[in-house]
Amino acid sequence: MKRILVVDDESQLLRALRINLRARAYEVETAQDGAAALAAVARRPPDVVVLDLGLPGISGLEVITGLRGWTRVPIIVLSGRADPADKVEALDAGADDYVTKPFNMDELLARIRAALRHHTGQAPQQVTFGDHTVDLAAHRITRRCPAPATPTDGEPAAPPGGEPAVHLTPTEWKILTVLLRHPGALVQSQWLLTEVWGPHYRTETDHLRFHIAQLRRKLEPDPAHPRHLLTEVGLGYRYQP
């Protein structure tokens, strides 16, 4: 059974989260201030921490900084602070995701599942979303649609199964692989840039936006309204299965 530590100074919210999480077979521990949160993690590390920022005494931001000094436990911030600057500060301090209050319980549960997948290092070799099947090991993408009579736009001819292959550049492959290996999780722009291009490119967000747009053009049914390769404005990107 996965353990979740919920840290918030609102008793009613703690009770609601405890009921909902236990109903879904999670073991739940709660804390109402930053000092109690740090002590709880040190005493028995949870699988996920759900953390408010506005805590009495030690702030939520200080809790994140303290935990990141010795543990990689996933931290999902659950806060009423909607300012992008607060989100960026929390993520830069080491939080893995950020959910704004008031929140949808199903969305929070999905973020928790994504954090657990990320933390356990699940790395599927084949992913299907929309009309596309991505084979990460073979570096091959096929789509479920009739093959054209003749290849166009420089794309390769259909493979023996009748499904035309989708061509990606090496850079597009790197970006897509990182996103697919963290389904549902927020991938920060700076981290994604470092993974694909290296640490000297952490601020080159225009590079990233261009290649994400190309991926959407090739993989999304409606690139202007993506359903799977999502932008979290000011924060990063998310692959939504």
Tag the structure with descriptive keywords.
globular, 11 strands, Rossmann fold, Arc Repressor Mutant, subunit A, 3-stranded antiparallel sheet, 2 domains, 5-stranded parallel sheet, alpha/beta, single chain
Task: Give a structural overview.
The protein is α/β, with parallel strands linked by helices. The chain folds into two domains: 3-120, Response regulator (Rossmann fold, 3-Layer(aba) Sandwich); 126-239, Arc Repressor Mutant, subunit A (Orthogonal Bundle), CATH 1.10.10. Helix content is 39%, strand content 19%. It has eight helices and eleven strands. Strands 2-1-3-4-5 form a five-stranded parallel sheet, sandwiched between helices. Strands 6-7-8 form a three-stranded antiparallel sheet, with no helix packed on it. The chain is globular, with a radius of gyration of 20 Å. The chain starts with a strand and ends with a strand. Mean pLDDT is 86; it is low at 158-162.
Q: Class of the largest domain in CATH?
A: Alpha Beta
Instruction: Tell me the major beta sheet.
Output: 5 strands, parallel
Inertia-based shape? globular
CATH architectural category of the largest domain = 3-Layer(aba) Sandwich
CATH topology of the largest domain: Rossmann fold
Sheet/helix structural class: alpha/beta
Range of helix content: 25-40%
Going across the biggest sheet, name each strand in turn.
2-1-3-4-5
The termini sit apart by: 24 Å
Helical run tally: 8
* Whole-number total of structural domains: 2
Number of strand elements: 11
Strand content: 15-25%
Mean pLDDT: 86
For CATH, the homologous superfamily of the largest domain is named as Response regulator
Order of helices and strands: EHEHEHEHEHEEEHEHHEE
Estimated radius of gyration: 20 Å
